[in-house]
Automatic annotation (TrEMBL):
<protein>
    <recommendedName>
        <fullName>Uroporphyrinogen decarboxylase (URO-D) domain-containing protein</fullName>
    </recommendedName>
</protein>
<dbReference type="Pfam" id="PF01208">
    <property type="entry name" value="URO-D"/>
</dbReference>
<dbReference type="InterPro" id="IPR038071">
    <property type="entry name" value="UROD/MetE-like_sf"/>
</dbReference>
<feature type="domain" description="Uroporphyrinogen decarboxylase (URO-D)">
    <location>
        <begin position="196"/>
        <end position="396"/>
    </location>
</feature>
<dbReference type="GO" id="GO:0004853">
    <property type="term" value="F:uroporphyrinogen decarboxylase activity"/>
</dbReference>
<dbReference type="InterPro" id="IPR052024">
    <property type="entry name" value="Methanogen_methyltrans"/>
</dbReference>
<dbReference type="GO" id="GO:0006779">
    <property type="term" value="P:porphyrin-containing compound biosynthetic process"/>
</dbReference>
<dbReference type="InterPro" id="IPR000257">
    <property type="entry name" value="Uroporphyrinogen_deCOase"/>
</dbReference>
Length: 403
């Protein structure tokens, strides 16, 4: 069975030869640059290009030699720049960043990125490992009618400013991946609705909008969905026949509970997700993979109704995210794309023996009856020893057979 068949059959709930593996097929299931470089060195692989495609999270593209070495079943169809340039990660190791992404030192020794108008859009503190958003272009909007003056910011939101490939460029890469490899191709569309409002308005402002300025929140979400639908139609017209999975995103949960009440979600966010996901499904046969961190179990029935096929990252340490219960409750309808190993505590700090026990537990909870794609919970962080990554993958390899 090819990796592409293994993933697509798993998403349809059909029997496969072994549990599929995703590392790096999405912007939330890969490795940060430092962890990637250390893993390559540990495995005896030569230095790679270490291309940082997600500049905020500092997540790297998986290169073919590592994908083959680890037996990964996926490849991400990412939104990329045409050209890259050399840079250094916080530990001093080498990487490449998009040519149009230009961090500069600030007065405090950190790094900042500015846009064409001089706004600082992202910032990494001197002792940091990631860039944080620093500019919210719609923060001062007071009335729905004012949104029209920000149409360009809404229309372009979620498409990285440094990603200057055309849709034809992306389609050419998709076609090549489809014809020249047998990996399952994951289209990373980077659509956010709740997080979209938070990034455009500011986190606190938009959360207040959802309760106190509902007309403004609805007006913004309507415009975002319209922009996303136009983008999805053009994008999927080019690549929809080549991809097997479409990734969409929205963090709905925190560590300790949902980010909002179920009633607020049902009124303010879900209708727009349902509209957008339904539109995507009308344009492609690809499955929809939905990413949300945190405690999201109570949203799953509505997410299924909205059209998702799989959930990532399955944050096993968040409230209400018990893997055995989730599988029992939703395993006949939902593919769990993640949950394979806790990254907050186990993968960072535990022994290889403890990591293996964690992996066996999650496989036992989630793999029965299929509909499980193994990956760790979210991206592997810079402080994770490469020995621990290998321990996780070795434990997975020894337990991935359905026989």
């Amino acid at each position: 069975m090819t990796p592409r068949q293994r993933i697509t059959k798993t998403l349809r709930g059909e029997r496969v030869d072994r549990i599929p593996l995703d590392i790096g097929g999405t912007e939330s299931s890969g490795l940060t640059g430092i962890a990637y470089n250390r893993l390559r060195e540990h495995l005896g692989l030569p230095p790679g290009r270490t291309q940082i495609f997600d500049t905020l999270q500092q997540v790297v593209k998986i290169e073919d030699d590592l994908r083959e070495r680890l037996g990964i079943d996926t490849v991400g169809l990412l939104i990329e720049p045409r050209r890259w340039k050399p840079f250094s990660l916080p530990d001093g190791s080498a990487c490449e960043i998009p040519e149009k992404w230009s961090p500069k030192k600030d007065a405090d020794g950190g790094l900042v990125v500015t846009d064409d108008t001089g706004h600082v859009t992202a910032r990494m503190p001197a002792d940091g490992f990631y860039f944080e958003p620093a500019y919210f272009p719609l923060a001062d909007v007071k009335e729905p009618m004012e949104l029209d003056a920000h149409a360009a910011a809404i229309e372009s939101f979620d498409w990285p400013a440094f990603a200057d490939e055309t849709l034809d460029d992306i389609a050419a890469r998709a076609r090549k991946l489809y014809n020249d490899t047998d990996y399952a191709i994951v289209a990373n569309l980077q659509f956010h609705l709740l997080a979209g409002g938070q990034f455009l308005r500011g986190y606190e402002r938009f959360m207040i909008d959802l309760l106190a300025e509902k007309d403004l929140a609805h007006a913004l979400l309507q415009r975002l969905v319209a922009a996303y639908k136009r983008r999805a139609e053009a994008y999927l017209e080019k690549v929809g026949g080549f991809v097997q999975v479409v990734l969409v995103n929205d963090d709905l949960g925190t560590q300790n509970g949902p980010m909002m009440s179920l009633d607020c979600y049902r009124e303010m966010i879900w209708p727009y997700q349902k509209e957008l996901f339904g539109f995507i499904k009308s344009k492609t046969d690809a499955a929809i993979l939905f990413h949300s961190c945190g405690a999201v179990s109570e949203f799953i029935p509505l997410l299924l109704e909205a059209g998702i096929d799989a959930l990532n990252p399955v944050q096993v340490t968040a409230a209400g995210m018990d893997t055995a219960r989730l599988k029992q409750q939703f395993g006949d309808r939902l593919t769990f794309w993640g949950g394979g190993c806790d990254t907050q505590h186990v993968l960072r700090n535990h022994t290889p023996k403890q990591i293996a026990a964690e992996v066996r537990r999650r496989i036992s909870d989630l793999a029965g009856g299929g509909r499980f794609i193994f990956t760790q919970v979210h991206n592997i962080q810079p402080d994770v020893p490469p020995e621990n990554i290998v321990a996780m993958l070795e434990a997975f390899a020894s337990g991935r057979s359905y026989a």
